[in-house]
Amino acid sequence: MAPGRLDPAADAPRPPGWAGVTGCGPPFPSEGKNPVTATRKPRVAIWAAALTLPLSVALLAPAAHAADTATQPFGPACSSVPKQGAGSLAGMAKDPVATAASHNPALSTLVTALKKAGLVDTLNNAKNITVFAPDNAAFAKVPKATLDKVLANKAELTKILTYHVVGEKLAPKQLNNGSFTTLETGKLTTSGSGTTYKVNKTANVVCGNVSTANATVYIIDSLLMPPGMMTSK
Fold this sequence. Notes:
Layout lengths: L17 E2 L8 E2 L5 H37 L17 H4 L4 H6 L5 H10 L2 H6 L3 E6 L1 H5 L3 H9 L1 H9 L2 E2 L10 E5 L5 E7 L2 E4 L3 E9 L3 E6 L13
Parallel strand pairs: 3-9
Antiparallel strand pairs: 1-2, 3-4, 5-6, 6-7, 7-8, 8-9
């Protein structure tokens, strides 16, 4: 053992690429890398990636939902639409709007009103329109005597029904804070976001963004009245 050496192993030959620490146990790589921390770093990277992935998916989910809303029907009443046949969402997409509505049981009162007003062909032949279609529950809110009176007055009925029609196809995002001129010439307003919208602050969209051959339909739960025209109770 050389003078001043405390450990005989210190004089033993060292493997190439290793620099020993005299008298202090096993040597470390000459590159200065600690085997423990070198192993730990890849594991930390793996855990970081595992934690980041769910967060990325969560951030992307709202965007995916918004994309679905822009192209698919939405709303609680869509679940009651027939699953098959001409009255289904797929079936309605093949027919012009008045014909498509006639196949949907929830719109039977509206179809009766359209026939009495002579508007079936008018709507079927129109191009690229939006119809805010009152469902049967919407008409049921009107007192029967009043409804019968309106249905018997073609001019008044036509005014009411054409107030539910806008001369362009409206996407859901256009309803966020919208104001649109109707075929009746009066204006209606829309508000909301996502899958929740109101028309004139009173009617809720219960099944929206329904496609027909010539129109986009938003089924609503209340009848819309043109400005200056009110139904008596």
